[in-house]
Amino acid sequence: MSFESTGMKLGRESEYAIIGLITLAMKPHGTVMLLRDIAASGGVSQSFLAKIFQKLTRGGVVRSSRGAIRGYALARHPQEIKIREILLAIEGADLLDRCIFWSHRCGDANACPMHFRWKQLKDEIISELLEGTTLADLTKGKAA
Length: 144
Fold this sequence. Notes:
It is built from seven helices and two strands; from the N terminus they run H-H-H-H-E-E-H-H-H.
């Protein structure tokens, strides 16, 4: 099941975050890379990626280094970084609470007609997918 088939849409920031993180995950753990090299490797905008990596740093997914060795490195091993924490760092804590059917906000107290069905699906499948998939899983099949 894909996010698209559930109606969940992720922003370009999430896409670029995952591309950049895969670049880091393909390197030996602890490797610090310049943002421009991460951006070039993934074919993404450096200025846009800078904003994304600030969010990832605040979210504890990457760490930034200043001084003689500047750049970014993964905060933990790729198999310890869950996709859920990446997406929450980028999309916000309400990622799984958003109504995917209508643009207005709904919740348990103000439910849209599909709210409780989506909530059940989200809790059973989507949350499990995001929690059970790691950054290391996304690097499988990629060339170094």
